[in-house]
Amino acid sequence: MRIRRLPVDDELMIEGELVVLREDEVLLLSEVASFALHHLDPDDWTTEEELSDLLMERFGLPPDQPEAVSWLVSALSDARLVATVQD
Amino acid sequence: MVVALTTLGVPLDLRLSAPTPDGAAELEAAVRRAWDWAVDARASAPSDPAANLDVPLDHDVATTLHHLSTRVTQAAIGQQQGRLWMLHAAALTHPTTGAAVALVAPSGTGKSTAARTLGRTWGYLSDETTGIERSGRMVPHPKPLSIVQPGSPLKDQVGPAAAGLARPADPGSLAAVVMLERDGTPTVDLEPVRTAAAIALLAEQTSYLGRLPRPLSFVAEILERTRGVFVAHYREAADLEPALDVLVTR
Question: What is the ipTM, given to two decimal places?
Fold first, then answer.
C-alpha cells in the first residue's frame, strides 16, 4: 500500500499534537498520528513500509505490530486526511 | 422608526414597524430597554450602519424581542466573520483588574445563569456570543439576557441595566477561557486543558472559524496570551466567583 497526504484548510502542531481544520471540522490527532501525517508528502506517495520504518524509529516497536500501521493509516483515511492505493 | 445600536462591534439599524403608532412606540421603548448598552454604544460612537434589519411587530412585543435577539446576533456575527474569534460564550470582566473571562457552554447549560449571577459585580460583556480580536481585546455583545420563564415557550429578554448588571468601563482583554461543566462538584475544580485539545473543543463552539485567516493559529495566538483554558466543575454559578477571581488575578 502507498499513502499520500490530502490537503487540509489549516493545521497547527502544538507540543507534538497536530490540530487539523478540514471542511469546518477540527481534528486533534494523537502523537503517533501527528508524527505520521507530518512526515507524509502531499505530492508523493510513501509506502506503508517506509511509514512503518519512520514510526519504528521514532516510537519503537508497537505492541500490536504489524497491524498498528495499517490501523493508523485506515483511521487517517477514514478522516480523509490521507489517500491510499494498493500496490 | 429606527433604533440604532452597535453590538459585537457592528453598527446596526433596526427599522421598527407596527400596525398602530402606539404599538410602534411600545415596541421602540421595549427594544431600547432590552438593548440599552448597545444603543448607548452607537450614540457614543456614531457611524453608518453596516446592516439594516426590518423589525415588524410579531404578534406581541415579547415575541418580537425574542426573535430580534437571535436576528441581531446572527447579523452581527455575519458581519464579523473573518475578523473576530466568535465564541459561543458568556463574557465578563473582573471588577478591579478588568481582565476578561469567557465562559463557554452549549446552549441551555449555564452561560446566561453565570452571566446573570456574576455580572452583578463583574462587568457584563455578553451572555451568549463573545467576540475576540486577534490581539485578545474583547468586543462586547451586550445583548439582553434571555431568561427562561416557567410555563412560557419564550425566554424573557431583559436589558443589562434592568437585570442589575455591572457595566464595564472597558471591555478588557481575554485572560482565561473557562468551559462550564455544571456537574454538582461541591468545591469548584478548575481543570486545565492542553492548548491543542482546547482548540479542538472550542472549535465546536466557534462561529465561522474557517473564515479567519489561518484560523488555528489565530485562536492559538489569542490563547497563548491568556492564563489558559480550563474546565470548571461546579454546582452553583455563584460558587464560580472566587475561583475565577483567583484565576484572572493571580
Answer: 0.87
Of B204, B210, B220, the CB nearest to A14: B220
Least Cα separation, residue A87 to chain B (angstroms): 35
CB B227 within 8 A of CB B248: yes
Query: What chain A residue is nearest to B213 in terms of C-alpha separation?
Result: A10
**DSSP bridge partners of A82:** A5
CA distance B245 to A83: 49
> Distance, in angstroms, between A5 CA and closest chain B CA?
19
Q: Name every residue in A having a CB less than 8 A away from some CB of B.
A: 9-12, 14-15, 17-19, 21, 24, 26-28
Nearest CA in chain B to A34: B196
Write out B131-184 in H/E/C secondary structure: EECCCCEEECCCCCEEEECCCCCCEEEECCCCCCCECCCCCCEEEEEEEEEECC
Could you tell me the three cell numbers for A27? 481534528
Written as tens digits, the pLDDT of chain B (250 aa) is: 999 999 999 999 999 999 999 999 999 999 999 999 999 999 999 999 999 999 999 889 999 999 999 999 999 999 999 999 999 999 999 999 999 999 999 888 889 899 999 999 999 999 999 999 999 999 999 999 987 778 877 778 999 999 999 999 999 999 999 999 999 999 999 999 999 999 999 999 999 999 999 999 999 999 999 999 999 999 999 999 999 999 998 7
- How far lies A45's CA from each of A30, A48, A58, A85, B11, in Å? 22, 10, 20, 9, 51
